[in-house]
Specification:
The protein is mostly helical and 176 residues long. It has helices at 6-18, 33-41, 53-65, 71-84, 96-105, 108-125, 151-156, and strands at 145-147, 169-171. Helix 1 (6-18) runs parallel beside helix 3 (53-65) and helix 3 (53-65) crosses helix 4.
Length: 176
Amino acid sequence: MNKCSQEFLSLADDCLHQFAQTESDDFSSILTSDDLNSFQDCYPGCRVRDFPPIKTLTLFMRQVASDTKSCRHALIDEARDQIVRGNEKKVPNTDTSAYCKARQRLSEASVRGLLRISGNSLDHASPESWLWHQRRVLLTDGSTLLMPDTEKNQKEYPQPGTQKKGLVSRFSEFLF
């Protein structure tokens, strides 16, 4: 699938419309077709499967935004939407194995890049009346993430020198 294919354009439109990214005002154009093109460029030569990168990203965002956070529910919701839109070429599959594998193929760097782009777009779209005393204020909530203390995780996310080895790694990353 290339960026000029009808399938890519349809998936990009579905992604943008699903999250009200219609480009009709500043806040509804946080993501653009160009942003999704850049995201797709992170996956050169990917095969067309049931879950190409943009569709996987769309389902992943839907899963994260849902109350249940369930892979199966995201696929069931997608199947329902496809049937409602009349896209019934084949019965949508709600087995989670292919989707979970596709989600693992999404690179952390590509998702982080898209997150930064959308965060910057949101920041630029914010009106000046939202500034506090004409200043941009950043807030952090002090969230932490627990993960196994494996050798691979130690290389990617090293512990501070003050923390003893063998403890669960805790880190929070400021994304902007």
